[in-house]
Amino acid sequence: MRVAVACDHAGYELKELIKQRLYDYDHEVVDFGTNSTAPCDYPDVGRPAAEAVARGNCDYAVLICGTGVGMSIVANKVPGVYAALCTSGVQAEYSRRHNNANVLVLAGRLTGTVEAEDILDRWLNAKFEGGRHARRIGKIVNGR
Ligand code: RB5
């Protein structure tokens, strides 16, 4: 798979770890930055990464800021993006199985490396179940 990654300064260290794990699993990584811990604004990197998913240039994206909240808001403003802020493996798994999330958001300042690896692994391996969950997503898209 082709996975976009993006972070602000507060997510830089975790982004590098996530990238390495994606490479270990033979995924292609498209890195939208940032590439240091120098302060930057999360919309500048999060929006282009989310748009890459919406346009079909990437299959998924992993976005990271300090709390994950800013990146979630940015990504979910992009039509066609379903971004899930996950702080546990079970949230990550069900965000794929039930919500068909195509963007995973992590909290660089709140989530430890072992937890982040578990979140990523469960997110990558879970599949959308469709059925009643597809009906519910249709109601998100159509407003009813
Ligand atoms: C940066 O200080 C911080 O505000 C940002 O990483 C993020 O947590 C915003 O939601």
Number of helices: 6
- Mean pLDDT across the residues is 98
**CATH fold label:** Ribose 5-phosphate Isomerase B, Chain: A
Distance between the termini: 32 Å
- The gross shape turns out to be globular
| CATH homolog superfamily | Sugar-phosphate isomerase, RpiB/LacA/LacB
At CATH's second level, what is the architecture? 3-Layer(aba) Sandwich
Largest sheet: 5 strands, parallel
Unreliable residue stretches: none
Describe the structure.
With 144 residues, the protein is an alpha/beta fold. It is built from six helices and five strands; from the N terminus they run βαβαβαβαβαα. It has a single domain (2-142), classed as Sugar-phosphate isomerase, RpiB/LacA/LacB (Ribose 5-phosphate Isomerase B, Chain: A). Helices cover 47% and strands 17% of the residues. Helix 1 (12-24) crosses helix 5 (113-125) and helix 2 crosses helix 3. The structure holds D-ribose.
Offer a few descriptive terms.
144 residues; five-stranded parallel beta sheet; binds D-ribose; alpha/beta; single chain; Ribose 5-phosphate Isomerase B, Chain: A; 47% helix
SSE order and pairing:
Layout: E1 2-7, H1 12-24, E2 28-31, H2 42-54, E3 60-65, H3 69-76, E4 83-85, H4 89-97, E5 103-107, H5 113-125, H6 132-142
Parallel strand pairs: 1-2, 1-3, 3-5, 4-5
Helix pairs in contact: 1-5, 2-3, 4-5
The structure holds D-ribose.
Residues 8, 10, 42, 65-67, 69-70 line the site of D-ribose.
